[in-house]
Design a protein that fits this description.
It contains 4 helices and 9 strands. It has 195 residues and is an alpha+beta fold. Helix 2 packs across helix 4. The mean pLDDT is 94.
């Protein structure tokens, strides 16, 4: 049976240089999630720096930034034309640092950050990050917050990461309302590179 995802549209508040030719258009990063209730805990989004992304026009006229595979899947659901030709192709690194407006989020503005473990063959290639509940999201955000050299390598400004803390949204008996940070501590996960 096919996996059913919910698409989350994250409006781009300003366009990075790679998207300047689309000025005046409404552009959205689209993340696919199995757990839309976690959007209340969103602190940022992630893209794979080396990942290949495209800008695709939906039948309603909106422009979505996502992987080619995700765009093809949306075309099969009649959201895009069957040709599914990108308006523009780009790498994840081209859009890292983009400011975003996320639905249901306590932060007025969140940023697109690098995550090195994204699979371009799942979802859309864009990850909506909920670090209170996802160990992968917490490990990647914590790496960027604690490792100045990693921020420098990916041209991440301090204000994009340092003031964004996990937002508690789901409480469990065993791990409290910060499941991911607590699990990472218990399992001694020190980095997003830990397996």
């Amino acid at each position: 049976m096919p996996q059913q995802y919910t698409l989350i549209k994250l409006r781009m508040l300003e366009l990075p240089e790679a998207l300047r030719e689309l000025k005046g258009e409404e552009l959205y990063l689209v993340a696919a999630t199995l757990r839309p209730e976690t959007m209340y805990g969103l602190t940022n989004c992630f893209a794979l720096p080396e990942g290949e992304y495209g800008v695709y026009r939906t039948k309603s006229g909106e422009l979505f930034v996502c992987s080619e595979r995700a765009a093809r899947n949306m075309a099969h659901q009649d959201m895009m034309s069957k040709e599914c030709a990108p308006v523009l192709k780009l790498k994840g690194a081209d859009i890292i640092g983009a400011g975003l407006k996320a639905p249901l989020c306590k932060y007025e503005k969140v940023y697109l950050l690098p995550m090195l473990s994204i699979s371009m063959s799942k979802g859309t290639g864009i990850v909506a990050s909920c670090p209170s509940d996802s160990p992968d999201d917490w490990a990647a955000l914590r790496d960027l917050q604690k490792k100045k050299e990693l921020r420098k390598k990916h041209n991440i400004k301090d204000e994009w990461v340092l003031n964004y803390n996990p937002i508690p949204i789901i409480k469990t008996k065993t791990y409290g309302d910060m499941t991911a940070p607590n699990l990472c501590d218990i399992l001694k996960v020190k980095s997003q590179n830990d397996k």
